[in-house]
Amino acid sequence: MTQEQRDPLDAAAAAYREARAALGQYRLPEVRRHLDEAKRLLGAAPDETDGHIELALRVQLTESWLICDGSGLAPALAQVFGVAERAESAGREDLQALAHIQGGVLLARAGRFADALDQLRPAVALAHALPVDDRVRLLLNKGTIASQHGLLDEAADDLAQAARLAEALPDYAFMALHNLGFVEYLRGDLPAALQAMVAADGMDAGVDRSVSRLDRARVLMEVGLVDEAADLLAETVGTMRAAGMTDELADALLDRARCELLRGRGQEATALADEVLAIAAGREDHARALAAAAVRLESLVLVGSPDRLAGEEAARLVADAEAAGLTRLADRSAALGVLAAAAADRPLADAAGIEARLARMRRSPYLSVRLLAVRVELALGPEPGRRALLVRRAMRDLTLAKQGMASLDLRTALTIHSWPIVVEDLRAALAAGTPWTVLAATERWRRALRPIPSVVPPTDPRSADLWSLFRRRREALRAPSGGDDPAVHADVVRLERALRERSWTMRARSNDAGARSFRRSDGADHLLLSYFWLDDRLHLVSAPPGRPTRLHRLGGRSDLVELVQLVSTAASALAGARRAPLAAGIESSLEDALAQLDESLLPKGLGEGPVVIVPSGALARLPWGMLPRLRSRAVALSPSLGQWAAGATAVHGTPAVAVASGPDLPLGRDEADVVRGSWDGAAALEGRPEAVKEALTRYEVVHIAAHGQHRADNPLFSSIRLHGGDLFAHELEHLPTRSSLVVLSACGVGRARVRPGDEALGLTSSLLALGVRAVVAPLTDVPDELARDTMAALHRRLAEGLPGPEALRGATTDLLARSFTWFGSPWRVVR
């Protein structure tokens, strides 16, 4: 039977259902075609029945989406309110409720959240007349909008009810779970937020994922995973363009612009904001036009060089946002105006009104907004006591945000939002001019920003299965045919992503007993060198034993970073070509770069004794022991002087030692044998991932001789090669680590990727963050024979009771052996 031969009302209902299905996938041209067909068929059906009235009104409500997308909010609302009046006249409470729902959703899309809730709350009173799917939709929309309006308890209640009602409705269950995750994010429970969102994304639901992925990208930005957010936003923008989702596309472009601002890319952010301005102008969308103008202003103030016009633009935005009822946008614009005035050294136009705005920003659920409020207050030039209070508030807020996060990935990424405050505090310290004031400022921030050791629950069975499968697929890549198999590569990428996302959802209990301030007496017999970057220039505070602390202004970033990279490349090249014809040329190039860095980085008159270095940024990748004036010195690298002092370890008696070696390392077993021979009762481990992980929970000292791989693109997947597969930095997050000293005789595993705030990620930094007191690892490649001999000499000296850095100094007489670096705190055996 053709559609023309069917009952017109039944055929119209079928066309309407097709339209709703197409709307769920945002296939808007199909929605229009099916709705036009439904309207045509309704015209041929009797119009006095309840069924006809209901279907006609439902068609009009669905059509309001298309009207809003094509002509704007006002005509769409006019259609919705007309439906509400007809439904009330017909005594149809269910259709009245649906009209309230649709009006609320359209208002929310335009950013008018208070008006949207005024539409949705009456719908709840009429919900008894609705079928289950419409009741779920009402609760979903109301909960989502309440969360956007800051009413988090109301939102959580609505979404929890929706999730319970939607048990047999997978599409709605997906939306309820995802949106509940967003509310958890607003409540500050970021692991719970990501857990819900990841779980929702894995559901078998036939809904468009672009809007939910936009929400997820916002969470990733808030936790500081800006590169991951940028990738997700690029994918989402492409999907929305293809689907013709104009309003959602504008929101995604704005979020992509904000993400570019976090990455320091002002021009890209401005271009994206300009695209949104063009979209908003064509649709007379005043709210989005204001939001885009605010992003342009942020680009100028936060990334660029604000001028007098920036302050005027901020004032205009404040007035326009207030007139439109966009209080949060007005507050943020006023905050930008303060920063613009401070940068231009101009008086603030509305000093009296800013305090109320800052008070609202301090109550924001977003850490980034609360820290922006602190930055603005600092720009207002408070007296010293107030300034110190503001800095402590920012540190406390950041520390609280990190608590409960098991993922080192999240705990290090979150720092990006506090970095502008760090810069302001360091500038103020430099202006004070005293070296100790500057050192105290760097130390307090390093203490606040460091990854807090945590007590993490054991790996759950699902994670264990994923790791096992991931290891097998990685091994398959090493098979003769595996490296060319696209399916194997795709599996590895998919599993890596799943494992990383799963780590984000894990909770932990803070274990911050080691945090304390540094005291000058802590390093009385050491030369202390603490470096930091400010405005692309390197600064150093040096504290020689028995002599005054000094402040040094050193070179520019680009030249020094280039030299560090040259050293890393040349040292690794020399390790692989020591007897090759080109070796002399490589060594000459290496020595030249090291001499330049020695002169550029180290103060004159180093004196004698051991050295403690707190590197910054790219300097964390430099093998400092290779510098000419440090080759005969005991050198330790630490994330901060406070952490170096707090972690000092003395092991009384013979420590429990375990030694393992990995495959395909010709001298690995020899190295393991000579290391074990240095310690009474040292255990020979089976060099498998599970055995090594267990050893880290049982033995005081663990030594691993194996091939290593540093992953600059994903540093927590840096690994050491063992029998049966690789051991990854990510896996260590779940270990109740007992080891106080870990020696990684694996090329290059001392390297780390440095995030804003000097947050390092890699194998070495992961072990230190877990509570291991000291790690020995090379920063470049080292020849196998040299590594074996160096490790034998190191352990022999450690067993004799020499302090760790001094033992390493005595063991590394060859230039390339000086790549082995002592990371962390003092460590020695006391007999």
UniProtKB/TrEMBL annotation:
It comes from the Bacteria. Gene3D superfamilies: Tetratricopeptide repeat domain. Residues 598-817 form the CHAT domain. This is CHAT domain-containing protein. It comes from Tessaracoccus oleiagri. The lineage of its organism: Bacteria, Bacillati, Actinomycetota, Actinomycetes, Propionibacteriales.
